[in-house]
Amino acid sequence: MIKKLLNNEIFSNSQPSQSVVSAALIITVAGLASRILGLIRDRFLAATFGAGDTLDIYYAAFRIPDLIYNFLILGALSAAFIPVFTGLISRKKEKEAWETANGVMNLAISFVIILSLAFCFFAPQLMKIITPGFPPEKMAQTVFFTRIMFLSPVFLGISGIFGGILTSFKRFLIYSLAPILYNLGIIFGVVFFVKLWGPVGLAWGVALGAFLHMLIQYPMARHLGFRYSFSLRKYFFDKDIRRILKLMIPRMMGIAASQANLFVITIFASTLAAGSLAIFSFAQNLQAVPLGIFGVSFAIAVFPTLSALSATEDKKEFAKTFAETFCQIMFFVIPLSIFILLLRAQIVRVALGAGKFDWEDTILTYECLKYFSLSLFAQSAIPLLTRSFYAMQNTKTPFYIAIASEAINIIAVLLLIGKYKILGLAIAFSLAGLFQMFFLFIALRFKVDDLGDKKIIKSIGKIALAAIFSGIGVQASKYFMASIVNMDTFLGVFAQLFVSGIIGLAIFLAICHFIKLEEYWRFKQSLTRKLFKSKNIIAENIGEVSGV
Question: According to the model, what pLDDT value does residue 70 have?
Answer without folding.
Answer: 73
